[in-house]
Write a structure and sequence with these properties.
Layout: E1 14-19, E2 37-38, E3 41-42, H1 43-51, E4 57-62, H2 70-76, E5 80-83, H3 91-101, E6 106-111, H4 119-129, E7 139-144, E8 147-148, E9 152-156, H5 157-169, H6 175-185, E10 190-193, H7 195-201, H8 214-227
Parallel strand pairs: 1-4, 1-6, 4-5, 7-10
Antiparallel strand pairs: 2-3, 6-9, 7-8
Helix pairs in contact: 3-5
């Protein structure tokens, strides 16, 4: 299923769920990626600032007993901090925990290492979730260059919280496999955001960009550098 051209969804209908429990093994650093400075701002702060414009509440999901500074930073950013659904772990447990804590019909789930979230794209995806009406919401998941992006997606809480719980109880650990099963079964409903859909809201598709590797991080820094400018200096007198 592909998206249509729906209208915007009210901010109070969407919770932002940020997954902050990932390890930074591929990046080769000892601290969380969310604590990296990009352009003078911590990555998690960049994510939170973008989502506050389109979501009524922000939920930060961390690992149980996570001992770095991410939970404290989340609290300082006025996020509701919770931990993965135990006894499970990984992104599927994080998504489920976030949906279980959500207080709105829709939730935008994103990995915390996405520093360039597009508010236009989040709005477009949330609107596409409700194109058939609020009584029949659909998950909206990007498939860019053939790859699903379950950690940058809209999920309706009512159907997807129990669906993910059932998948975990069956031993599933992969969000992508879980979603592909839903697509095959045609339930819960899934709307795929194609590259064309993505480019309409985010022409460079940098909202999907993460900083999972040193190459990704260098590319993100180049984007930040290209955006810098010298502001006009006004008289203080």
């Amino acid at each position: 299923m592909t998206s249509s051209s729906p209208q915007n969804v009210a901010r109070d209908q969407v919770t932002g769920i940020v997954l902050g429990g990932g390890l930074s093994t591929r990046l080769g650093i000892t601290q969380s990626k969310l604590l990296i400075h990009l352009g003078g701002k911590l990555v998690l702060a960049r994510v939170a600032d973008a989502l506050k414009m389109v979501c009524s509440e922000l939920v930060l999901v961390v690992r149980p007993e996570q001992e770095d500074d991410v939970p404290d930073l989340g609290i300082a950013l006025n996020m509701h901090v919770i931990s993965d659904t135990v006894p499970y772990k990984g992104p599927l447990a994080g998504i489920h925990a976030g949906l279980a804590a959500s207080t709105t019909p829709l939730s935008f789930v994103v990995a915390g290492d996405h520093p360039f979230i597009s508010r236009n794209l989040v709005n477009a995806m949330a609107a596409a979730a409700s194109v058939d009406g609020p009584e029949s919401p659909s998950a909206v998941i990007p498939r860019s260059e053939g790859v699903l992006n379950p950690l940058h997606a809209i999920y309706p809480r009512e159907h997807w919280a129990p669906y993910f719980a059932h998948a975990m109880s069956d031993g599933e650990t992969s969000p992508s496999r879980t979603i592909e099963k839903a697509i095959s079964a045609d339930y819960p409903p899934v709307t795929i955001f194609t590259d064309e859909d993505l480019e309409r809201a985010d022409p460079r598709k940098i909202s999907l960009m993460d900083i999972d590797t040193p190459e990704n991080l260098n590319a993100a820094r180049k984007i930040i550098e290209a955006r810098r400018f010298t502001p006009r200096h006004h008289s203080l007198g």
